[in-house]
Every structure is written in C-alpha cells, then in structure tokens.
Amino acid sequence: MGRDCKCDRHKDHYKLRNFPDNIRELLCLLAQDDDNRVTVVIDACEDCILENVEIVSVIGELAVFRCHDKFKFVKICCICEVIVDCETILDEVLDTHNCHR
After folding, report:
1. Rounded distance, CA 40 to CA 48, Å?
2. Which CATH architecture describes the domain 22-99?
3. pLDDT tens-place string over residues 58-95
4. DSSP letter for each residue of 21-58
5. Do 31 and 55 touch, CB atoms closer than 8 A?
6. What gap in Å lies between CA 92 and CA 30, rounded to an integer?
7. Are 55 and 33 in contact (CB under 8 A)?
8. Most exposed residue of 1, 4, 45, 76, measured as fewest CB within 10 angstroms of its CB?
C-alpha cells in the first residue's frame, strides 16, 4: 500500500503509508468495517453508472456490494471511481495505521 511520488529519487521515502494506491486496495480497506457505504462509478460499455452501495467483500478481482436487498458482483477493472465520505476514509486509514504500530 502507498502511492509513489513522481520523484524517482528515494522512492520509498515518499510513499503515503497505509493509504491505498489502487481501487482494489481501497475497497479491501473499506470492506473491513460493516456498513461502509460508497458511491462507485461503473463503466458499462457506452455509459457510466453511479451506484450508491455498501461494500461487502473483495474476492480476487471481484467486488461484492449490497444494494438494497440484493448483492451486486462487479469486476474491479470496470470501476472507474470510488467516492467515499472523508470521515470514513480517514477513520479507516488511521485505524490501519494504529494496527501496524
């Protein structure tokens, strides 16, 4: 986990620790808590679809969401964006940081 800075010099020193640098890691982080709701933008061929969902799990390259009373299974490569509440992501990143101390 951790995003690289564009600067090539001492790359390892510029990573943001515990912060996901791809959609899969972000979904895995958010799936650790119950009731983490996000909005995902799904690329559906000719159109993009916004879905307000609860993250259930990430299994390989498949994201499992709960939408009302149904489960939705989405290939992670089809997700363009994940929109998450500021407090939710900060809570998750700080909890992960505290666990690694």
Report:
1. 10
2. Roll (2.30)
3. 999 999 999 989 999 999 999 999 998 888 888 877 77
4. -SHHHHHHHHHTSTT-EEEEEEEETTEEEEEEEEEEEE
5. yes
6. 7
7. no
8. 45
- Residue 90 has a CB neighbour count (10 Å cut-off) of 11
Q: Which residue has tokens 């900060």?
A: 90
Tokens representing 60? Answer: 């390989």
For residue range 15-46, what is the model confidence (pLDDT) as tens digits?
Answer: 566 678 899 999 998 888 877 889 999 988 77
- Taking the C-alpha atoms of residue 40 and residue 21, their distance in angstroms, rounded to an integer, is 16
Q: Which amino acid is at 63?
A: A
* Domain range summary for the chain, segments of one domain joined by +: 22-99
Residue 55 to residues 11, 13, 92, Cα–Cα distance (Å): 32, 32, 13
